[in-house]
Structures are given as structure tokens and as C-alpha cells.
Amino acid sequence: MSLSESTKARFAKEVAKYPAEQKQSAVMACLAIVQQEQGWVSAEAEADIAEYLGMPAIAVSEVTTFYNMYNQQPVGKYKLNVCTNLPCQLRDGQKALEHLCQSLGVEDGGTTADGLFTVAKCECLGACADAPVMLVNDRQMLSYMSAAKLDEMLALIRAEEGKVA
User: Fold this and answer.
1) Burial tier of 68 (Cβ tally within 10 Å: 0-12, 13-18, 19+)
2) Per the confidence metrics, is the pTM higher than 0.90?
3) 30 near 52, Cβ under 8 Å?
4) How far apart are the first and last CA of the chain?
5) What is the pLDDT, as a whole number, of residue 1?
6) CB proximity list for 102: less than 8 A, separation 6 or greater
7) What residue ranges of the chain have pLDDT lower than 50?
């Protein structure tokens, strides 16, 4: 993959926010741009970002792998992250993850055959009092996710997508 002109233009807008000698500070924004355009961040995309920002590819990879918001492989249209850190564990976070996986016929980190859902555990989402919590597509936080609420959410998404369970 080489960066398209439109991607380079988007990168340039982000880089312009920093002093020239600190353009590497735009690494997270550049990763987000690639993910928006492609759905995930490949090792090749990391190398392109590194070259554009003048930094080692391993440094970009370290950022990609540190944050769970960057997809390191293709994911479903709906990425469902369930918090399984201790506070959520104590309030059925693991059970919520297992229920989703069983309902969708996937393992933790797996994507449904139709490409609609990817389910994965994640680190703390900072809403322990609302446990179990989950994040949909890195944007929408859902709280108190009982098995019934999870089933309702899946049915709603499937209905919106025109796919029956």
C-alpha cells in the first residue's frame, strides 16, 4: 500500500498542528485516518505512516499495539468490545463476553461468517459503576449489559441490517 494523495492531504492537516521537528506527534491521528479509510491498520500501513512521519516503523507498531482502538486485522462492521477487567468481572463482564460469543458463534476476537460482528474483550472502559460495559465501534458505550440487553442489541442491529438471526 502506498498512501493516496487524499490520505497524504489528511495526514498533512494533522502534522501541521505540531512544530515541524515534532511531526511524529501526529502518529495517532494518522493511524486513525488509515483505519477510517481501510477498516484496519496493516503492517504495510504502519510502514507507510512511519516513512511519512520520519520515524521507525517499530515505533508506529508500538502505538498500534498499545491501544485497542486500532484494529490490527480486518473486523466486522460492528466491533463489540466487552470490558473484562476486575470491576466488570465482578459484575458479570466475562459472562457478557461469553454470552455474545455463544450467541454469535465466535470465539473471543472472532468475526461472524457474514462479517457483521467482531467480538473481543478489552481493557477498562472507565465506567466501572455501570458494569458490565461494552463499546460498539470504538464510539458508543453501552452499560449494564445483561444477557437480555445483549440479545436486544444484536436483534436491533440485525434488523437494521436486514439480517434475521
Assistant:
1) middle
2) no
3) yes
4) 37
5) 59
6) none
7) none
Place of cell 462492521: 77
- In three-state form (DSSP H/G/I as H, E/B as E, the rest C), the secondary structure along the chain is CCCCHHHHHHHHHHHCCCCHHHHHHHHHHHHHHHHHHHCCCCHHHHHHHHHHHCCCHHHHHHHHHHCCCCCCCCCCCEEEEEECCHHHHCCCHHHHHHHHHHHHCCCCCCECCCCCEEEEEECCCCCHHHCCCEEECCCEEECCCCHHHHHHHHHHHHHHHCCCC
| 28: its cell numbers | 495517532
Q: Which residues pair with 120 in a beta bridge?
A: 81
Q: What grid cell was written down for 13?
A: 492537516
pLDDT for the residue 136: 94
4 contact partners, CB below 8 Å, separation of at least 6: none
Distance, CA of 136 to CA of 142 (rounded, Å): 8
Q: Are 68 and 123 in contact (CB under 8 A)?
A: yes
Single out the residue of 67, 55, 149 nearest to residue 100, CA to CA: 149
